[in-house]
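Sequence, please.
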């Protein structure tokens, strides 16, 4: 399979995935739907007229109009959450040229307004937003909410969102759902706020970004006087939001919990700073009734449910995030693969001129899997072949997979058990190819590559995630397991369509890896701490 075919496959998978997700999201994703449909149609056309170059052309377009805008929008959201509006606006100015859909063209003006409001220049900020508020787009609703927010008019926001804005529109935007919850909290409608978060939970918890689910729980926990849970969110998944936002929500939780002196000091500092995102809200905030008296039995129960879930979910999410530089065995395996590839290039270039690891004689000398040679006594080829690759593309794909999957499995198994599992799947997949060849069931004349071991990592991780699910009913692990299943299905379809790829090598590595993952003991025990602040009534 050459690079052109690889890019073509990637474009098809990406566009079809975007179309599926876009149809689920509806109007909020119509720009992505249009671009994905156009690129898919163009790719189908080019495949007929330029079959040898369609992957390169469509891949370049995919990179410009889908990948860069997707990653750029994530970066803009991150900067916005940190209240770094100026760099976010600069990113938006570039992205709107590549993707002038779904409010991208309006983002720079909106972010400039937020920048002005943060600096206390509220009239100028409102002037920037007012043109948006005259239309009927989603951005107009967001802009109108922000104008009222700058003024601290939360009752007006609530009235408008309940009386003039369809609930379906509110639920189509994670930002609007969070704004609605905040309006309910600012107007002391706590029981209703909890009921609405229950209604929003499926959309928020299943969103591509977990930020708004975390932020929405932060709003509810703050207004309901749960400082312990607020602190856990602010030290965990929301640690990178702006300092002023952390100060606002920590003080709100403290005030609701009865720690009025500390809370008022924090509020006074925010008001004195002139930050227009919070100053008027705090000046006009109404005194809050005692939370215990304001919440009914259902609300107390639901808070406890969310609180208990938080103490399971956050450690689990943290467990999934491992940096490659914290994984010495994974790094070592990558270095060994690279060293073998350098040896391939040097040896092959000496014999037949410069090449990038595609000289078959060099691969044979270094240990390519030849089943007949293995049976004759070259057992070392079962391992050596797993560190050899046919060309730089083959090497790059496998090393990307190793870097992506290895750190988590290494953390969960520990360094030496991880090394054992990797070598077992590498040797096991090569041995399977050898046995099937000598018995005539499935003939493989020669094979190289770490693909069997990489698929083994997928199988091992699947076993680990299943174990986590059994121990604590982890939603994070369940989501990860579904992604693994989807990847395996796509990989098997890809293998079946690509004769050069060893389906048996991949499948055997997957099965062996799953078995190894079920057998080996986890190095990172799954333990759950419990909140102390919540008690069911």
């Amino acid at each position: 399979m050459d690079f052109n075919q690889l890019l073509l496959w990637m474009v098809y998978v990406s566009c079809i995935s975007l179309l599926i997700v876009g149809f689920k999201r509806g109007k909020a994703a119509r720009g992505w739907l249009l671009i994905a449909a156009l690129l898919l149609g163009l790719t189908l056309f080019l495949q007929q007229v330029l079959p040898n170059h369609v992957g390169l052309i469509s891949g370049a377009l995919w990179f410009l109009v889908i990948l860069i805008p997707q990653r750029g929008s994530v970066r803009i959201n991150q900067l916005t959450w940190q209240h770094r509006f100026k760099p976010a606006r600069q990113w938006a100015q570039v992205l709107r040229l590549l993707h002038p859909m779904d409010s991208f063209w309006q983002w720079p003006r909106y972010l400039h307004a937020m920048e002005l409001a943060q600096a206390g220049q509220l009239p100028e900020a409102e002037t920037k937003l007012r043109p948006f508020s005259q239309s009927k787009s989603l951005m107009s609703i967001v802009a109108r909410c922000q104008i009222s927010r700058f003024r601290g008019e939360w009752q007006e926001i609530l009235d408008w969102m309940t009386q003039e804005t369809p609930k379906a529109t509110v639920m189509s935007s994670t930002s609007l759902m969070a704004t609605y919850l905040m309006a309910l909290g600012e107007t002391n409608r706590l029981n209703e706020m909890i009921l609405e978060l229950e209604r929003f939970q499926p959309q928020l918890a299943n969103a591509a970004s977990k930020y708004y689910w975390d932020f929405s729980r932060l709003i509810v926990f703050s207004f309901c006087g749960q400082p312990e849970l607020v602190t856990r969110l602010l030290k965990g998944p929301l640690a990178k939001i702006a300092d002023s936002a952390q100060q606002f929500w920590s003080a709100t939780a403290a005030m609701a919990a009865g720690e009025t002196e500390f809370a008022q000091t924090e509020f006074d500092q925010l008001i004195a700073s002139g930050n227009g995102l919070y100053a008027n809200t705090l000046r006009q905030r109404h005194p809050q009734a005692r939370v215990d008296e304001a919440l009914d039995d259902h609300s107390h129960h639901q808070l406890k449910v969310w609180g208990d879930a938080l103490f399971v979910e956050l450690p689990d999410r943290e467990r999934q995030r491992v940096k490659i530089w914290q994984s010495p065995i994974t790094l070592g395996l990558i270095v060994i693969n690279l060293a073998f590839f350098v040896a391939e290039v040097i040896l092959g270039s000496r014999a037949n001129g410069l090449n990038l690891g595609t000289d078959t004689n060099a691969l044979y000398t270094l240990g390519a899997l030849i089943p007949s040679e293995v049976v004759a006594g070259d057992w070392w080829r079962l391992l050596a072949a797993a560190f050899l690759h046919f060309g730089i593309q083959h090497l790059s794909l496998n090393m990307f997979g190793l870097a992506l999957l290895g750190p988590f499995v290494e953390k969960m198994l520990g360094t030496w058990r991880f090394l054992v599992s990797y070598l077992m799947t590498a040797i096991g997949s090569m041995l399977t190819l050898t046995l099937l060849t000598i018995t005539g069931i499935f003939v493989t004349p020669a094979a190289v590559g770490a693909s069997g071991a990489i698929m083994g990592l997928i199988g091992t991780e699947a076993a680990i995630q299943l174990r986590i699910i059994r121990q604590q009913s982890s939603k994070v692990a369940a989501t990860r397991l579904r992604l693994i299943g989807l990847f395996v299905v796509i990989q098997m379809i890809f293998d079946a369509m690509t004769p050069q790829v060893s389906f048996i090598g991949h499948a055997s590595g997957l099965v062996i890896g799953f078995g190894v993952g079920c057998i080996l003991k986890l190095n990172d025990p799954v333990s759950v701490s419990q909140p102390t602040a919540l008690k069911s009534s």
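The radius of gyration is 28 Å.
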